[in-house]
């Protein structure tokens, strides 16, 4: 049995954005179960906080909030070795019906938010001088688009591109930066428009015949943050049950 005091991440400072719900919450729980000191950065206060060292309320699209949140987080856990950026929002609309307002709202969280969080993570890790791991949650949509996902798919392509830039610049500092591209994971995101027929249709796109779970994504994120992930950087790794293969 794994306890909170043994595991791959014992004593490691880990910040997870979007950790109040869905995939991010599971990532935070899994790091904590392997001994990490986990900080949740989210725009809302998480319901469950037992596994957290602290919860910081901040908007990832706001420069000064992100800076203050990193200061708080680093002070609480004594330095961050791992940053997982999972906060994101979705928007579903035909391309011709996608407004500038919707485009900006989605990109402010998903693209600008990734820029601000990744930049803060790199600055913090370079100043510490002890390397680090950054994992940004993108989407299968970054690679193959998605009908009615114009703003979302474009924002997630930005996540992949930015992760590659950071990997190139920060490799000499011993910092790896990767993007993770999930397929369909039933969470709060999209729950208001998801039907049983959607679930059946999407499941059939996977050779494994099912949708993903937050644990499927968390397993890959923890691998990338662990010693076993040391030689992966600048990658955009699919966790889609084979729906995407490139
Ligand atoms: N669920 C899927 O099918 C799926 C597929 C591919 C990629 N993803 C990505 O995975 C990530 C997590 O999604 P999820 O399914 O767990 O969704 P979710 O809605 O359950 O969780 C998203 C979290 O991000 C937080 N958040 C949103 N905007 C924020 C902001 N401006 N500042 C701080 N926090 C903010 C929310 O409060 C929430 O806790 C997202 O980046 C999403 O795009 C999800």
TrEMBL record:
SUPFAM superfamilies: NAD(P)-binding Rossmann-fold domains
Gene3D superfamilies documented for this protein: NAD(P)-binding Rossmann-like Domain (3.40.50.720)
Organism superkingdom: Bacteria
Residues in Ketoreductase domain copies: 13-183
A Pfam family of this chain: adh_short_C2
Entries under InterPro entries matching the protein: KR_dom (IPR057326), NAD(P)-bd_dom_sf (IPR036291), Sc_DH/Rdtase_CS (IPR020904), SDR_fam (IPR002347)
Family per record: Belongs to the short-chain dehydrogenases/reductases (SDR) family.
Name of this chain's protein: SDR family oxidoreductase
Organism: Nocardioides mangrovi
